[in-house]
Amino acid sequence: MGQKERTLLEEIRQFDTPSVTNVVATYPSHPLCLGLYNPLTENWYTDDSLRCMYPELGALAGYAVTAVYGPTEPGFGRLTGMDVFDAIDASEKPSVFCFQQKFPPELAGKIGLSGGNMTTAMKAMGAVGAISNGPSRDIDEIRPMKFQYLLSGITPGHGGQEVHAINVPVHIAGMDVAPGEIVHMDENGACKFPADRLEQVVENLHKLREEEEERMGRLAKAKSSAEIRAIFSGQPYGAAAKKKAARKRR
């Protein structure tokens, strides 16, 4: 990765994840939306099952490194945590570790998979955050590290576990992630997009921010719903208002 990409990944931290989703796919009829996914049928952002452990850290973004964890299986045991750290070390920087947990229902909420030691090692290898569909632990110990987690929750312990796969497509809380994709995350959740669209996403985010700041400034000064309707006219989220105004003019 070159200096340009590093600069863009730092720059995109100015924007929250909902703004990134707006540019990536949320409003396909908007000229600044890249339309990279069908916004409702594709799994490109997380659902409401995750909690942000450290909202005060703000937004961050990085290249996805993925893994699947599950119960220890006799006769497998081909991969270890050291292989995970090798993958993070080999990834473009910064990275976001996206690990899917595949445990039976009676265990899924009790495996505090990642703790202080694992987080320290991930951060040393260039990761800035992690996302998982299960819980982790050592939340107070990790807080001073300024390493972000999006998790299903927290729990103090775990039992036997092993790495089932590394750098394969994973599904986490409604989001499909492939190795090397860009993941953007904050207290709203996470979304992903192809790494080769990073520059375009950042460029459109700046343009969208200018547009929305101008619009919200006008909305704040509106004295009637008619003014608000006029301001929203032509915008994707103002489509209903636009139709209503057209009906009134008939």
Residue fraction in strands? 15-25%
Helix/sheet category = alpha/beta
Mean pLDDT: 92
Tally of DSSP β-strands:
10
Q: Stretches where pLDDT falls below 50 for ≥5 residues?
A: 237-242
- Main beta-sheet annotation: 8 strands, mixed
What does this structure look like?
- The chain is about 35% helix and about 20% strand.
- It is of the alpha/beta class.
- The protein contains 9 helices and 10 strands.
- Strands 1, 2, 3, 4, 5, 6, 9 and 10 form an 8-stranded mixed β-sheet that branches.
SSE inventory with pairings:
Layout: H1 3-11, H2 17-26, E1 51-52, E2 60-70, H3 81-90, E3 95-101, H4 105-108, H5 116-124, E4 127-132, H6 139-142, E5 148-151, E6 162-166, E7 170-172, E8 175-177, E9 182-186, E10 189-193, H7 198-220, H8 225-232, H9 239-249
Parallel strand pairs: 2-3, 3-4, 4-5
Antiparallel strand pairs: 1-5, 2-6, 2-9, 7-8, 9-10
Helix pairs in contact: 2-7
Put the structure in a nutshell.
Helices cover 35% and strands 20% of the residues.
Record keyword descriptors for this entry.
8-stranded mixed β-sheet, two-stranded antiparallel sheet, about 35% helix, elongated, about 250 residues, alpha/beta, 9 helices
